[in-house]
Design a protein that fits this description.
Number of domains of chain A: 2
Distance between the termini of chain B: 36 Å
Number of helices of chain B: 0
Oligomer: heterodimer
CATH topology of chain B: Immunoglobulin-like
Strand order of the largest sheet of chain A: 1-2
Number of strands of chain A: 2
CATH architecture of chain B: Sandwich
Number of domains of chain B: 1
Strand content of chain B: over 45%
Helix content of chain B: under 10%
Distance between the termini of chain A: 72 Å
CATH superfamily of the largest domain in chain A: Cytochrome c-like domain
Strand order of the largest sheet of chain B: 1-2-3-7-6
Structural class of chain A: mainly alpha
Number of helices of chain A: 15
CATH topology of the largest domain in chain A: Cytochrome Bc1 Complex, Chain D, domain 2
CATH class of chain B: Mainly Beta
Number of strands of chain B: 9
Largest sheet of chain B: 5 strands, antiparallel
Radius of gyration of chain B: 14 Å
Order of helices and strands of chain A: HHHHHHHHHHHEHHEHH
CATH class of the largest domain in chain A: Mainly Alpha
Chain lengths: ~425, ~130
């Protein structure tokens, strides 16, 4: 009787083990080609951040500290309530957890993560900015975000002892900032534009130069925000070093998800490189944001970037025009209609909801979207249906959860100064 | 005057070495023009903008000078083009053209179309490779 019981227990254990294997459905035997691909996704393969030729203070620590203070300063808003950190919250991986960003009002786009963003040649979901400093300027003057203007920002820098002293060290003496009008900008409403027109050309240039330098300091700070190594990176590096990856903290479910990620699910076609993004633009048939017309995406974005006075070729840029390769050779063809920027998947678990309008609440909804590859309302969906099972979708989600880790950024940068 | 555009792929070599003498890509048009591509980022890789030296020689191994060289490309499987619009900015040596603004943003099958226009004719050839 005891033997029969033992046999039943043994058979039961074998059954459970076999089911676990079926659940994982993959062995950890990778081909050499797969290992090469996996190595290209590890943070160990992340190159040193290249200089930004358009921003001469990008690597300056004093500029980063200046930018750090500015990033958390609500005085950079029309009603003294909104800072960059209001939407880009360090505790949420520099996002806000909302479908659409909420500055002074709710805006039209989801707040993107800033993690590793300094590696990108393009900014905004549609790539309308070609540098991190040019990007940092736009929300300041946007009515539903900070709702302030360049004249008031120049006056703030001039009137604050730390700001004005630091500015002088980094950029030279501040120009004389006119005490009237109260506010002025060529990018504002009709009152601000009229006020701007009341200033002479030299005043306009000098005020805009201060404004651009504020952006350059903000960018110097944001370049510090980098992803940290997670379980995925440790797993891949164990493969690289020919150690047994089995002991490197990925479950069989997560490994199965990884195999799908680089294989059948084709995620790696766009989510590639150590930051798991190609920083490019793709139409993947995401539904338009409720209440909005379908976005033209990168098709419009590249045209905005070319027309931007703060772009790499503009007079506020520190770059030699020959260094502005991305802007000079940017594509602008029809296949970019409806294309939005590929986001990083680093810390993706903590940056819900997803897509340019926060349309999808969970990672499972996201992978389900790609599995179905719906018809795009504008132009065409580049992706094709994947034919993944419900279990496979869950494995993909399990894998993406392994991409979370504390940031590789000094603690001081993650808190207000 | 223009001959029909041909897409005959005669031979293709994708090297994985950084040997400066060995082209990264090469192809011959149906008209007998040989195109040797030395990528300034070798081996070829994704997500980095770079330039190519495109050397064009004729069947007698003489450089084809003063040609209009144009390169476009894309991924037929994904129905999209390159993320950039590369263009020739200079003929740096007789028959060798500097193509700037090349960047690939996805691994997979890429198809580049190279056209060489001289006073005599227009040759177009399709160059396919995996990244």
């Amino acid at each position: 009787m005891k033997n029969i019981l033992s046999l039943v227990v043994l058979i039961g254990c074998l059954f459970i083990a076999s089911q676990l294997f079926v659940t994982s459905g993959v062995s950890t035997e990778w081909s050499s080609r797969q290992i090469d691909l996996l190595k290209s996704l590890s943070l160990s393969a992340l190159p040193k951040l290249e200089i930004d030729p358009s921003n001469s203070v990008a690597e300056d620590r004093a500029a980063a500290e200046f930018g750090h203070t500015l990033f958390f300063d609500v005085r950079l808003s029309g009603d003294n309530t909104i800072a960059c950190a209001t939407c880009h919250q360090p505790k949420k991986m520099f996002t806000d957890g909302l479908p659409l960003a909420a500055g002074t009002k709710v805006g039209p786009r989801h707040t993107p993560s800033l993690v590793g963003l300094a590696y990108s040649p393009w900014f905004y979901w549609d790539g309308r900015k070609d540098s991190q400093w040019a990007q940092a300027l736009a929300p300041l003057e946007t009515s539903h975000e900070h709702n302030t203007n360049r004249l008031e920002i120049a006056r703030l820098i001039d009137g604050d002892k730390y700001y004005s002293e630091t500015y002088s060290i980094l950029f030279g003496n501040l120009p004389e900032i006119p005490q009237s009008p109260k506010g002025a900008s060529p990018a504002g409403n009709i009152e601000l534009k009229n006020a701007w027109d009341s200033l002479n050309e030299k005043q306009q240039f000098l005020i805009t130069e201060v404004f651009a330098n504020v952006g350059k300091a903000l960018a110097a700070y944001q370049r510090k925000i980098m992803p940290g190594r997670g379980r995925f990176d440790n797993y891949v590096d164990a493969l690289d070093e020919d150690r047994d990856p089995a002991g490197e903290s990925l479950t069989s479910e997560e490994v199965a998800g990884l195999a799908l990620f680089i294989g059948k699910a084709q995620c790696v076609t766009c989510h590639n490189g150590p930051l798991l993004t190609n920083n490019e633009f793709h139409n993947t048939g995401v539904l338009p944001i409720t209440g909005q017309l379908p976005s033209m995406g990168r098709y419009d974005g590249v045209r905005f970037a070319r027309a931007d006075p703060f772009n790499c070729l503009g007079k506020y840029s520190d770059a030699n025009p020959k260094d502005c390769l991305e802007l000079t050779f940017a594509n602008d063809t029809n296949d970019l209609v409806g294309a939005q920027k590929t986001p990083t998947l680093r810390n993706i678990k903590e940056t819900a909801p997803y897509m340019h309008g926060g349309q999808l609440k969970t990672l499972l909804e996201v992978v389900n979207h790609y599995n179905e590859a719906p018809v795009s309302l504008l132009s065409h969906n580049e992706s094709k249906p994947l034919g993944l099972s419900a279990a496979e979708l869950q494995r993909l989600e399990a894998f993406m959860n392994t991409l979370s880790a504390p940031l590789a950024t000094e603690e001081k940068w993650l808190n207000p100064p | 005057m223009n001959r029909p555009i041909s897409f005959i792929l005669l031979y293709l070599l994708v090297t994985t070495t950084a040997n400066a003498q060995q082209p990264d890509l090469r192809i011959e048009t149906s008209e007998g023009l040989r195109i040797l591509i030395h990528s300034q980022l070798s081996p070829l890789q994704i997500n980095r903008i770079h330039s190519w030296h495109v050397k064009v020689i004729d069947a007698d191994s003489k450089p084809v000078t003063n040609a209009l060289v144009a390169v476009t490309g894309g991924m037929p499987e994904h129905d999209h083009g390159l993320p950039t619009q590369p263009r020739v900015t200079e003929e740096i040596n007789p028959g060798t053209y500097l193509l700037e603004g090349v960047r690939f943003h996805m691994p997979g099958k890429w198809s580049m179309v190279i056209s060489i226009e001289t006073e005599e004719n227009l040759s177009t050839v399709s160059l396919d490779f995996d990244l």
